[in-house]
Amino acid sequence: MSLSDVGNLMCLPFDEIEPGQPTEAHEYLIQFAASQLGPEGRNWIPLIVKETGPDQYQVIGNSFVYAVAAEADLNEVWCIIAEDTPEAVAITRALAQETQPKTNLSIASRDEISAAIDYLMALPNTALKGVSHASLVARLDEAPRQYWKTLQPITKLGCRITAGKKLKALQEVFYLTPEPMPEVVTDRALLESLTTTQLKDMAKKRNIAGLSKLKKADLVNLLAAA
Length: 226
Description:
This protein is α/β, with parallel strands linked by helices and 226 residues long. The chain has nine helices and seven strands; from the N terminus they run ββαββαβαβαααβααα. Helix 8 runs parallel beside helix 9 (216-225).
């Protein structure tokens, strides 16, 4: 393959193509599509492949089509040749809806958070039943999530997210890339998201004495005012 082949639609021998990530489609759907295609048919939806060697390719997108072509016993299949880069693979899998979308909650906009929550709530048997979309989006948007190392602080935002199925559901669509915590924190929302131990450690670094009997609310008030 030459560089000019990248982006081209080409008819390739099926035995030169290795499968990539397997499709999650049920066998019934594969068999039905294969029966429509037949051994002499053409896959009008092409495979997306990358070159792995001379006359050797691997599927990076439309894995369902590959499974159907195998079931239909096609000798040749139509393919689009993609660049052999991680970026090309990621883009292809996203466009083919073959990867779970995830949003960086550390930097996400309000609209991005809203779309992710709406997606989860629209799923069959969603774990977020009883959760207010508007409330959860607002609390997440206002929270100091740029410093979170886990999603656990969400359980303390007062939006009916518990540390069980609901939090696990959010972990399916959100990930974090936390910033370093500032040396001095006075933001009340950020302080309230920390544990009592973290607050005491922060107070000790600021040479605040008499911490042993203080509760979390006291520590938050003390550090916010300092």
